[in-house]
Structure formats: C-alpha cells, structure tokens
Amino acid sequence: MLNIALPKGRLGEKVLELFEAASYTCPSIHEGGRKLVFENVEAGVRYFWVKPSDVAIYVERGTADLGVAGLDIIKESEPDVYELLDLDCGKCRMAVAAPKDFRDDPALPLRVATKFSRIASAYYAKKGRQIDLIHLNGSIELAPILGLSDVIVDIVETGTTLRENDLVILDTIMPISARLIANKSGYKFKTEETKKLCERLSAVLAGRKNEGKRS
Ligand code: PRP
C-alpha cells in the first residue's frame, strides 16, 4: 500500500485526477464530507488530504510514502525527501512585486513582506541587498498598499491579485509547479510500487503533452 499525501484544495483536485488517470483510483474519495483518509486496497493506495504547506512534513517523517507539494513549499522548507517527478500542474511563479511608483533607495534596507522568508532572504542575499524581512501568513499584497513593506515576494498565478491592487512585477525568482516527493526510507522499501506509479504518471503526462501539441 502506498500512502500518499495530497494537497487539499484546487491543486489537490487536479492531482487526484492525474493519479486516477494513472489507474490509482479511489471511489470513496469522491463521496464528499469531511473525511480525510481514503483507501483503495485493490489499487494499492491510501490518500490523505493534507494542508498544502504540511505535505512535505508528512513525507519527510514517513507518515506518507509520497506526497505532492509545490516547488515553492519545497524550496521554502527544504525537506529531506526525494523529488521524483514534475507533475506539470499548479503552475505559477515566485515573483517580486511592488506598487507601480516604487523606487528603490539603496541607502535603506528594503522592507520585504512575504510568506516565503527563506526564498526571499536567499534571493536578496545573492543580490547583496540588505533587507528588513516582514514575515506574513497571507494577503501579502496588502503590505505595500498600506505601507508596511516596500515590496513583496509572493506567488503569482494569473496576475489578477497584483493587477487589482495596483502592483507590478519587478522580477521573477523562479517558475513553480507541483512535484511528487518521496520519503527516503519509504522509497527503499517500496521501490517497485513507487517506480511503477512514476512510470504510469509519466505516461499520462506524456499523453497529455502530445494531445496539447495536436490540438
Ligand atoms: C495566492 C498568492 C497571491 C494569489 C496569486 O494567495 O499569495 O495572493 O494567490 O494568484 P493570482 O495571481 O491568480 O491572483 P492565496 O489565494 O493562496 O491566499 P493568501 O493571500 O492567503 O496567501
């Protein structure tokens, strides 16, 4: 049985669809309600719905053999796990954004608001720019509007949140997509099952890519 931590929410629904297309179906997970653990013994899977930012913790500690986490979470928490596959969904980017009229004053530390403190710190350290890091937990776009920060480091997907709050992208730090991650010792004990799952997922992804090219 493979224990798989799926990120609860929009991304999780897409990912589940991908796993089911790869034959790892689980009828009971579609019944609705507030249940969090579902299994299909025949398909050899047990799925858990986990808060997206916690998936890597479940996988690193071996509660889940596998999990799906965004590259943003992986880079921010640097879990000791294997990254097996780019699942080509949940695509967005990590970006620096600021109000349209922002002008950087190099004489002062740059006030940076973000949920991604490690990513932001590494980015500015590489640039040699001193920052005043303001760690927030959500609605990051509010910070520069209200004058709490000069810039933000955050996820941009459609760009709507930035646009509607009069913010513009100054730089893209990295492209993001969902990754399949594995617990290191779990991988040793369940190598065959895990490889099979990766092969099947890769086949579905390749098929989708070809369909996309044709249409
Ligand atoms: C994320 C992110 C941006 C928004 C970007 O926030 O932090 O605010 O989505 O998406 P867009 O480019 O399509 O507008 P989320 O919805 O996760 O909520 P949060 O503000 O609580 O982080």
Can you tell me about this structure?
By secondary structure, the protein is of the alpha/beta class. 35% of the residues lie in helices and 30% in strands. The chain has 8 helices and 11 strands. The protein has helices spanning 10-21, 55-60, 71-77, 117-127, 142-146, 160-164, 184-189, 191-214, and strands spanning 2-7, 37-40, 45-50, 66-70, 82-86, 92-99, 110-114, 131-135, 151-156, 167-176, 178-182. The strands form 2 sheets. A 6-stranded mixed sheet has the order 2-3-1-4-11-5. Strands 8-7-9-6-10 form a 5-stranded mixed sheet. The longest helix has 24 residues, at 191-214. The mean pLDDT is 96. 1-O-pyrophosphono-5-O-phosphono-alpha-D-ribofuranose binds at residues 138-141, 154-161. Residues 138-141, 154-161 line the site of 1-O-pyrophosphono-5-O-phosphono-alpha-D-ribofuranose.
Mean pLDDT: 96
The description of the largest β-sheet is: 6 strands, mixed
Sequence stretches where pLDDT stays below 50 over 5 or more residues: none
What is the H/E order? EHEEHEHEEEHEHEHEEHH
Which structural class fits the helix and strand makeup?
A: alpha/beta
Q: Major sheet: order of its strands?
A: 2-3-1-4-11-5
Distance between the termini: 37 Å
Give the quaternary arrangement of the chains: single chain
- What fraction of residues sit in β-strands? 25-35%
Q: What value does the Rg take, in angstroms?
A: 20 Å
> How many DSSP helices?
8
**Helical content, roughly?**
25-40%
Bound molecules: 1-O-pyrophosphono-5-O-phosphono-alpha-D-ribofuranose
The number of strands is 11
Tell me, briefly, the overall form.
elongated
